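Reviewer 2 asked us to include a model.

Predict the structure of this chain.
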Amino acid sequence: MKLFSLLLTILVFQTSVFAQLLGEKNERLQQQKVLSEHVVSSVKSSLSEITGWVLRDNTKWINAKNIIPIADSKYLFPDKVLGQDNISEMEIRETQVDGKSNAVLVVKYLKPNYEFPTLKEGFSTAKVLDYYVFPVEKILQIIPDTLSAGIPHSINLAVTVSGRLEDYESKDIDLEINTAVQRFTASRFINPANLVLAVMPFSKDGKDHVKFKVIKTYPSEKLYQPYLSEEMSSQLFTHSYFECTRNTFANFFNSAAILAVSDKSVGDQPTDFNGFFIKGVRA
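Predicted model (structure tokens):
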């Protein structure tokens, strides 16, 4: 009888341990599934060869690499070296949100800091990045193939997840973005920002170029909609803009553009500036 009780105790203990191990295994598999569904890719493309332009004192256009200079020549504070806007680099990554392909636009820039802000003393710079997750098909609308040179065009990227990382070189960027995507899909994350991308193709020295602006706004339609109007679009490039060659600009978005059409029929005709390139890749 004692032997039977001992054997029964051992059996119950083994069953309990097995159930616990099985539960832990299932939990790990579930966690791996969640991570696999929301994993953020490595950098697919980057863009840093850009020039900023501004109409100085409403009389003369001046430029600087990666910086839109200050328009007022009398502005003498130390942060003038960063201009009115600056972009060190932009990157494209890819991810999945609720089972759908999304692009991740990362914008890196320098932010001015003052130890004594009121006195404008103790100036330093900080490396900051903003990231924006949006439906990948939006990339196909950036420069329609029917858009003529000199015609401005603005796109609402309909950002679903966004965030900011300061001192990003000391952080795991992909992990930070992935965590934000998971919070969004679990309904624990309210997206605080939206993005409008304004572009205008033009010809310079016989080559095709693109003027562009990355316009940070908010999810409310009444706040981003004005940037999409013809009246506003026509004014966006009259005083300042970033510029690069059209080929450089197109190549920057091509990797995500290919992903955007992966579910389309191979027979579909191209409808955008990436279309013929993509069709050739898939043929």
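Helices lie at 2-38, 173-185, 221-224, 230-233, 246-260, 275-282. The first helix runs from residue 2 to 38. We have added this to the supplementary material.
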